[in-house]
Amino acid sequence: MTGLAIRPERECRWDIVSLGEIMLRLDPGEQRIHTARTFRVWEGGGEYNVARGLRRCFGKRAAVVTALADNPVGRLLEDLVLQGGVGMDYVRWVPYDGIGRNVRVGLNFTERGYGVRAAVGCSDRANSAASQLQKGDVDWEAVFGRDGSRWFHTGGIFAGLSPSAPDVVVEAMTAARKHGAVVSYDLNYRASLWSGAGGREQAVRVNRRIAPLVDVMMGNEEDFPVALGFEVPGQDPARTKPDPGSFREMIGRAAAMFPNFKAVAATLRHARTATVNDWGALLYAGGRFCEARPRENLEILDRVGGGDSFASGLIYGLMEGKTPEEAVNYGAAHGALAMTTPGDTTMASLKEVERLLRGDAARIDR
After folding, report:
1. What's the pLDDT band for 243 if we cut at 50, 70, 90?
2. Is residue 190 part of a domain?
3. Do residues 303 and 119 make contact, with C-beta atoms less than 8 angstroms apart?
4. Tell me: the pLDDT tens digits for 188-239?
5. Which of 311, 306, 321 is nearest to 283 (CA)?
6. What is the C-alpha separation between 226 and 245, in angstroms, rounded?
7. What is the DSSP pairing of strand 107-111 with strand 23-27?
8. What is the CATH number of the domain that holds 268?
């Protein structure tokens, strides 16, 4: 058992509300960013992807809190989000200044990589509307008090966007906890995000401020020591394949630092090539570890969003009252399926997730 107290559906308008930036992803397909002449457009954002996964794959009621520039690019994002079925009731539309001097929509150019050529991402998001959200801009009493949500999710990408973003996170988490929502947070450490804003030291300060308000903490193998600021004795930073033993020690160390964590979850990935990965996950809950069935030599089409889809599958399992073993396996299976399709967000169905959990062969379904 996890000890999570999840509000009944009948008491809440939403099953999950996420706070974060939504960007346009420009995908060159099989081409390179610097040689492409055409791009396919997707929407995506670490925190938003989790809510969308819960809506599209698992049928949960989801909404996003963000800010967008009120121009045709922002309205393109609106159209994409609405196609994903995520509620936009709490989106803050910011007047556009004509050239993006003061406000804009963030862009994310990502090429998928292939074989020995790693995936590459290039973000262009400075001065985005979401990064300029301030404490007091969102009526959190309306979100969690009047309307109600069973779960609230955000993460380290949004928290690292600007000096004001951590204040918004703390304000939102405080209101969520007041009204009985479970709070989850994905550390999602990105060195490029923090490089011009105080580096790793500032990331640690921000995450340690937020962590005491979190019920379910998530991350990957690298996130926990880097984003929370501790070292694991005996860990070899030069190793290329994750060591499950040191991984468990990292998670246990995080849980000991913050006893408010009711669950700590992490993905475990070894990239043999850009298109062949080993993939697994761990969950620490109720004083013990549960490990998802590891998948070796998983074939990858597009790795972006795999961790977010793990998070949405895990949250679904916990929200549905499944055992910790079942929940972490739902997360790992959903993450694996999400990486077989293009774009940041899931195209999987609950039927496909449960088929993979049963170990069914990938024969044609007709």
Report:
1. low
2. yes
3. yes
4. 999 988 988 899 999 999 999 999 999 999 998 889 989 999 876 555 544 5
5. 311
6. 18
7. parallel
8. 3.40.1190.20
